[in-house]
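ESCALATION

Customer reports they have been waiting on this structure for their group meeting. Please prioritize. Original submission:
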Amino acid sequence: MKIGVLAAQGAFAEHIAVLQKLEVDAVPVRLPRELEGLDGLIIPGGESTTISKLITAYKLREVIKERAGKGLPIFGTCAGMILLAKHGINGYPETLKLMDITVSRNAFGRQKESFETDLKIPALGEKPFHAVFIRAPLIKSVGSGAEVLGKLGDGTIIAARESRLLVASFHPELTDDHRFHQYFLDIVAGKR
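Update from on-call: job pushed to the front of the queue and completed.
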């Protein structure tokens, strides 16, 4: 299995490190040709407007959309979730418009409002998942084809899936719990 991690900006090195711990061939993706032969793609957290501009500048936007249309599994975390969304509010950058979700950017506030919490995510099992939220977005709503995977205690949606697309508001790459990455790898392998 070969997974690409968009390396335009953001926490790509951390995702690559997690994938390597899971014994997966993980490669940085900066150019369209580097998408060839991938079984899946991760779009990491970072600054969503910057990442959006860079995927346009490096001619990745249309290639990613084409590959997604042909079934390439994609996992978007934090800014990556924003970039996968079809709809957004609060300073919305140009996105890939792939997943039928509406997101709110920087929904929890500025850097000082960043936080960590334990989440119940049934798809990952009984054990709570410790999540790191950094200037995080949230999902305001999901379309009919999308499934909510996780919520905060107040009902705020923070993780979802639509077919072979997976998103999380938080940064699973910043924890020692690799179940969210394994869940994505199971999607790639057709096990989920």
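Sent to customer with the following note: DSSP finds five helices and twelve strands in the chain.
Escalation resolved.
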